[in-house]
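Complex record, three chains
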Amino acid sequence: MPDTTTTTPTVPVAVPGAAVATHVISVIDIGSSGVRMLLAELKPDGSVRELEDVQKPLALGRETFRTGTLSAASIQKSVNMLRQYRAIMDTYGVTHTRAVATSAVRAALNRDTFVDRVFLATGIEVEVIEGSQETLLTFAAVQRALADRPDFTSGDSLMFELGAGGTEWALVRGGDVAGSLTYELGTLRMRDLLRSELGDKRAMTRLIQHNVKEMMNEVKRTLPFEKVTNLIAIGPEARFAARALQGEGDLAAVSAKDLRALADKILGMSAAEVAAAYSIPTPEAESLAPAFMVYAELIKLNPVDRLLVARASIRDGLLLQVARSIQSGSSVFFPEQTIAAALNLARKYRADERHGLHTATLARAIFEATRAQHGMGEGERLLLEVASIVHDIGNYVAARGHHRHAYYLLVNSEVFGLSKMDLEIVANVARYHRKGTPQSDHPAYAALPRAARLTVNRLSAIIRVADALDKAHAQRIQNPKITVEEGELRIDVETAEDIALERLTLDQKGSLFEEVFGLKPVLREVTA
Amino acid sequence: MRADKTRFPIRCAGMDVGSNALRLAIAEFKSPTRYRILERKRVSVRLGQSVFKTSRIDPETLDAAVDAFREFRALMEQYDVVLHRAVATSATREAKNRAAFLERVHTETGIDLELIEGTEEARLVALGVREKVTLRGTAVILDVGGGSAELALLQKGQILLVESHDLGTVRLLEQVGKATGPKLLRILRERLRASRFPMLESLRGHRVSQLVGTGGNIEAIATLVAGQAKNEAAKDDTERKPAAVPLGRLTKLLEALANMEPEERAKKYDLKPDRADVIVPAGAIFEHIGKRTAVRHILVPFVGLVDGVLLDLARVAGAEGKKKVETSQTLNAAQAVMKKYDPDPKHSRHVASLALSLFDQLKDVHQLGKRERLLLEIAALLHEVGNFISGPGHHRHAHYIISETPILGLNEQEVQVVANVARYHRKAPPDLSHESYSALSERARDQVRALAAILRLADALDHDHRQHVLGVAAKTKDSQLTVKARTRGDVTLDEWSVGEKGGDLFKEEFGLKPVLKTRA
Amino acid sequence: MTDRAGNGSTAEPRYLSRALTWLGFNGRVLEEAEDPTLPVLERLRFLGIFFSNLDEFFMVRVSGLREAIEAGIDRAEGEEAVPSALAQIGQRSHGMVRVAYATYEREILPNLEENGVQFVRDEDLLAQERAFLDRLFTREILPILTPAAVEPELPFPHVTNLTLCFAIRLAREGVGERFALLQLPRQSTRWIQMGSKGGSRFVLLEQVVRGRLGELFPGHEIKEAVLFRVTRDADFATDDQEAEDLVDAVKLVLKQRRSGDPVRLEIEATTSDEITERLMAAFGLDRLSVYHVAGPLDLRFLIDFARVPSLPAPRAVAWPPQPVPDIPPGEAIWEAVAQRDYLLFHPYETFEPVLRLLRLASEDPSVLAIKQVLYRTAQNSEVVRALERAAENGKQVTALLELQARFDEERNAAWARRLEEAGVQVLYGLAGLKTHAKALLIVRRGPAGIERYAHLGTGNYNERTVLEYSDLSLLSSNEDLCADLTAFFNVVTGYSEPLPWRRIAMAPLGLRSRFLQLIRREIEKSTPEEPGQIRAKMNSLVDKPIIDALYGASQAGVRISLNVRGACVLRPGVKGLSENIRVVSIVDRFLEHCRIFEFRNGGDVETFIGSADWMPRNLDRRVELVFPVAEPEHKARLAHILDVLFADNVKARELRPDGTLGKRASRRRPVRAQEVFWEEARVRAEGRGESDRSIFVPLRSAPE
C-alpha cells in the first residue's frame, strides 16, 4: 500500500551554503529496459520544478524474463549507474529520495540480492513495487497532467502501459480509476513470440491480433465499462510513436494507420539500425514494432479512431507522491479509487454490495474508536475497508467454504492501488471473517511476514465484529456510538428494530477481538 | 461397483450415513425402476453433534456407527442382497478422522462406505423423488439433514444445478445456542435471511413451480400437518402417498413448536427426542426456502437419500442406456458451471468436440473407456473457466474452481481428474512436484496425463479461438500422428501452436509426434 | 564564366570542389597579404597564415585525394573528378605559392627594410655579427645537428614531416661523390636577432648552418647544399581539415597503410636537377608535387615574427575588446544574469564577464556544481585555474576535455592531470565523437532554490583565440536552456542517454534533420508575395543533404544568403538550381568563426547560434550544440550582424558559380563589417546606448 511505510524519506542532508529553502526530491525507477532518475525541487508553493532527468538503457528485463535471475554483471552495471546518480543527488543535496524497481527486478529470483547490493553500494533503498502500483503512480501523473481536460474526465477512458513484462490496465471513469488489472502480455514476450515468426509478416500479425484480442477480452471481463471514449497509452514506446508521428503536447493522438506504417518501417530495419536512426537505446528499439502493432490492434478492437499518448511516466507519479507526503504527511494515493476497484470486484462476484459497504462503515468506526489499542495507520484502514467490501465474494464459487474461496479469488485479483502484500493481507482478513481464526498452521497465514500477520490478526478481529453487526444483511445497526470502557468495546445503537441476531452472532464471533485487543465487544440498545 | 448386465428381479441394499442417523433400505427390483421395499432400518447415531462441535467423530459415536453397520450387514445377508451401496454425507465428510471411520467400517463389516459430495447427495435424492412424483416445469428439491441442506434445481425432471449449504439442523442448533421460545425462531429466521442461495438468485424471474422437501424432518412435519400423529418411521413409507404442506400451516406449526421446550414437543406431538429439537431449525429452513421460491406448499414425497441410492444401484445394474441419462445430466451440470464463468464458450465447446473426436479416433492409442471420455469432455468444457478470475494462471484457477465446484455425477476422485486435466491444458505438463497432481492415485494420474495430452492438442487446433479447424482425421504412422484438419480460412497460427506447444506432452505421453496437415 | 555556369549548368557538376573552394579561401588570405593598404606587419601575419593553412591542406586534403586515386575511386556523385581536381589544385597551389613569394620578396621585405627591419644576407654581415653567429653555432646549434649519409644500398633516411632539411652533395679525394642529409632542429626559432643592442637585424637559422656545413663534414668538399622540406600525409582522423565523405571513406581504409607518405616537396629554386630527381625518387613524388621556391622555405614563422614587440614597423591599429556596460560589475552579475540573457559578440566585446562568472563561481560557497566543455583551451588559462579552485573548494566540477584538439595533446594531457589531482571530474569525450560544443553550466543554491547559469557560444574557452576569432556567446539562466544543458552534460559525461530536448539541438543526434526540417518549413511558408528567407553564417558548407535542401528551397523561391568563410561545395547562382542563393566569404583581421542560422519562418523569425558547421563531420561525428536565441532584442541584434556582414563590400568576396571568389562590385560607400562591429562595441561601451547601434549600416536589406 502506498503509505508512509513505503515512501522512505531520507534524513535531510546538510546543504552547502544557503539554508534549505526548498526540498530537493529524487525519484529513481529501475525498469526492465533502463534505469532512470528524476530530480526535482519542491517549491514552498507546492509547485514542482524539474532539475535533472537522467536515464540509461539496461536490459534487465530481457535477462530476468528469460533466465529468471539477474546476472552479477547486470547487478554491477545497475550499481555503477546508481553510483553516478548518487553523485548527482549529492551535488544538489537531495533531501528526499524514493527508488523503485519494477517488473524486471520483481521477476528476478535474486531480487533481494539486487536490492541489498544497491543499498550497500549507494545507500539508496530500492523498493520493488507491483504492477498495480506502477499503474497507480503513472495514473497519478497522467491525472495531474490531464486534470483540466473535460474529454478525459467525461466518459470511460482506458489507460494502459504496454510494459516489457506485462501490460497494466486502468479504467478511468469521471477522472477516477474504476478498476485495473495486469495482463501478462508484454513487449518482451511479444518479441519472443514474434522471433519464431520473423519474416512471415502475416503470421506475425495473426499472432499479435490473437494475443491482443485475448488481452482485450480479459480487460472487458474484468473492467466494468460500456463504451471506451478514450484509449490512452503510457510508456516509452507510446511516447516514441507520438514523437515519431509529430504528436504534440500532453496528449498526442496517433492513428492506427500511422502506427502500422511506423511498425512496418521499423520491421524493415535491425534493432541496431533503429536505435541509431532514432537515437534510442537498443532494448527500447527492439520493442517498438511489436508495441505499435499492439496499439494498432487495440484501436481496432475499441470504438476509437486514435490512440492518445500521455507523456507522464511512473517517475512523475513518484515525484507527486513524495511531494504529497512532504506536504500533507500522507501518501495514500486515491483511496477512493481503491475502494471503487474493491466494489467492482465485489460486483464481479455478485457479492451483497450494501452489506459490504455497511460492514466497511462499521469496521471503520471500530477502527477509529480503537486507534489507541491498535495504533494502525490509514494504510491499514484502507485495507480493512477493502476487505470488508469483498469479504463475501467467495460465495460465487460455492457457499460452503466461501471464506477460503474469497482468499483464493483475492490473491489472484488486482485491486487498484494495492500491492501484492496488501492483497495478501486483505485476502487473509477476508478468509478469517468467519470460521477458524488465524493459526500458524495455516500456510497462507504463516507465510506472511510477522508485521503482516499482526495486521491480519487485528483487522480480522475488527471485521468479524463488523460483519456480525450486519449479520442479517439488513443494515440495522446505523451510526453506532462506539466507545472503549472498562475492558469493553461498547457498541451503543439507537434502534427500534430487534437486533437479537446481531448480538448473538457477536457473542460467537467477538472472541477474536477480545483475544487481540483485550476488549469484549458488547452491543447495547440505547432507546432514544 | 460396475456390474455387467444383470437379470431382474434383483435384490439391492442402500445405506446412508447422515448426521442424525444411519439408514438401511433393502428392496427388490423388478426392473431398474420398479421396486418394492423389503426392509427399512434407521439407527439413530448423532455423528453430527460430535463432528460439528469437535470436527471429529468421538470414539463412542464411532463404535455405535460401526455396530449399526454390523447389524445392516446381517440383515443384508438374511435377504441375500446382491448389490449394495453405502454412502456417507456431510457429517462424515467434515470429520477429521473420517478415514479411520471408513477404514473400520470396511475391515469390520466388508461394507465399502463411500463418501459423497453434497451435490451427489442431492442428485440421488432427486432420483428418488422423480420415481415418486412427476416434476413439472422448474422444480427445487430441498433436503435438510443434520449437517447440511442440499438444493437441487430441476427442469422438466432434468437436474440442472445442485447446491450444498452448511445449514444442517444440528449445525444451526449449535449456532443459536441457548436461545428458546419465539426468540429462537426469530434468530433462526434472521440467520437464514443472511445466508445466500446463489442457485435461487440465478433463477432470476424463472418461477419455481414445485418445491419438494425431503428428509425426516419435513416428513414429520407433513405427518403432523396431516394430523395423523403416527410414527414417521413406518415400514410402508413407500406406500405413503406424497403429501403437500401448505406454507401457512408450516409457519403456524413452526411457531407453535418454537414456543415449547423440546420435551413438550416430543410429548405433545409424539416425536422422538432426536427429532423434537431439530425439527424447529429444519422447519425454519423449509419456511425460508418456501418463501424465497414463492410456492404455495411444499411437496413431500416421503423418499430419501436411501431410495436414491437404491435406484442408482438398480440403474447401474440395469441397461447402459440408463447411464446416458445420467451422463447427460452430468454434462448439463458441467455446462452450467461453464456458462457461469465463461461468457463466450464457443471456444470451449469447439475444443471439446475436437478433443472427443481425437479421443474416439485414437482409442487404440490411449485405450481409455467411456468414463474417461466423459471426464475429457467436461475438462474441455471447463478448461477456460479460470479466465474469469484472471488471465494469468487461469489454468490454475480452472483447477481451483472445478475442484471447489462439485459437478454432480462425478465422485471426488473424478472431480480431481477433471480439475487436473483442465489445469494442464497449458503451461507446465503434469509433474509429481505439483501437489494436486501427486495427491492423485496412480490410475488417476495416468488418466490426467493421457487426457491432458489430448486436450492440449485439441486446444492448439483452435488456438486462435476462431474455430477455423472444422474437423480432424487422425492417422498414426510409426512414431508420427498425422492430424488432417478440415479448415476454413487461414490456420498458420494453429500450425504454429500445434508445432510449438500442443504437441510436446502428446509426444511424451504416446510417443507420437503430432503433425498438422490442413486442407481448406 | 557566370554565363557558362548559367546555361551550361547541366554540364557543370552539381557541387563545387571542396578543395578548390578552400584554396579560394586561402587565396583570400593571400590577397590580404598582398594588400598594400595594410600595415606591413599585418601583411606579414597573413602571409604566415597563408602558408600554415597550405601545409595543413596538403597534409590532409591533398593526401586524401591521392589516396582516392590509388584506391581507384574516381568521382562521387555530382563531384569534380578526382584526378582533374588534383591537377587543378596543383596548378593553383603553384600559382599562389609563386605569388606569395613574389609578394614576400618584392614588397614585404623591402617595406620592412624601409622601416628598419632587415633580414641580412651573409655578405652583409658585420664582423662582430659573424663572430656572434660562430659562437652561437658551435655552442648551441652544432651539438644538436646529426647528418645522415645516404648510401645507395641502404634505405633512404627518414625525413620528418614539415622540417627543414639540407640535401648535401659531398666530394673527397679518391672516394668520389657522396650524398648526405641534415635536418634542422625543429624546436629552435627560425630567426636570430643580432646585436645585443636590440637592433632589428635578423638572419634565418638555415642561413647560419649553411655557411658552416664544413665543420660537419671535415675533409669533404661541399659541392651542393640545398634546403628542402617534405610534407607528409598527416593522420588527423578527426581534425579540422579532415577530408570529407568519399575521400574520408578512403582514408579510413588506407589510413594505417598510407599515413606518413610524402605528398609535397618544397625545394629551393636553385637546386640542381640531380638532387631534385634524387629526392623525387626517394619520396616517390611527381613533378606536380615539387615546389621550387624562390625564397626561404616554410614562412609560417612570420605569424610569430610579426608579434615580436620590438619591431619598429607599422602595425594595425589595435581593436581592444570593449567592456559591456549593461552587465554590472562584480557579484551583481549573478543577479543580472538571473534577470535576463546577455548576448556577447567577441572579440569586439570582452570575454571578461564569462571569466568573472567562472571565477566567482569557483569561490562562491553557494555554488554546487560547475560543468564545462574545454576544447582547445590555452594552457594555464584562467578557465582551468578557476575550475581547479572550484574543485578545491569542494564543488562538483566536471570538465570535458577534447584531447583530439590538434597539436594540443601534450599540453592538455599535462593540465588534465592537474585538474584531476584537484578533484575535478575530468572526462575525455565520447568514443569516436569529438566534443566541439562550447558550453558552461553553473548550478547554485540561491535563497529561492536551485539557480542555474548557462554560457553557450560559438567559440572556445581559450583566452588567445578569444582575442583573434570573432564569436558569439550567450549568458543565460533561461529554464529550458539550462535544463537542456544539464541534460547535455549528463549525455556527454555518460550519465544518461539522450532525451528529447526542450530547445537546443545536438549533433550527432538529429541536428541535421532539425536543419532540414527548418529548411522544409521555410519552403512551405514561402509565397511569391512573401518569399521565405534563410540567412546563415558558418566556416564551411559541405553537407550534401543540406545543400540539396537549399537547392530545393532556392528553386521554391526562398531567398538564401550564406556567409561561408572557407570551403563551400554549394554552387550558387545557377539558373534552375540555385539562382536564389548567394554565398559570400569574409577574410579580415579576426578569423570569422561564429555560426548563425536565421530562418524567416513566415515573419516569425527564428535565429540559432552554435558550434556546428554544415559539414558531415560536424553533423555526424561531433558533439555540437545549436540553440535558438529567444529574446527579440537578441534576434534583432543577430539580424543586424547579418545585415552588416552581407553589406560588407571591402573584405567580403562573392562566390561565383564556377567556384571562384570575386570582389563585389558596389557603388555604395565602403562597408567593412569587422570595423563596423568594433565601432559599435566602442560606442556601446562609451554608453551612447543601443539606439544608434546601427548607424554604420547603409540599409537593412542586403545590397544586390
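Note: The longest strand of chain A covers residues 48-57.
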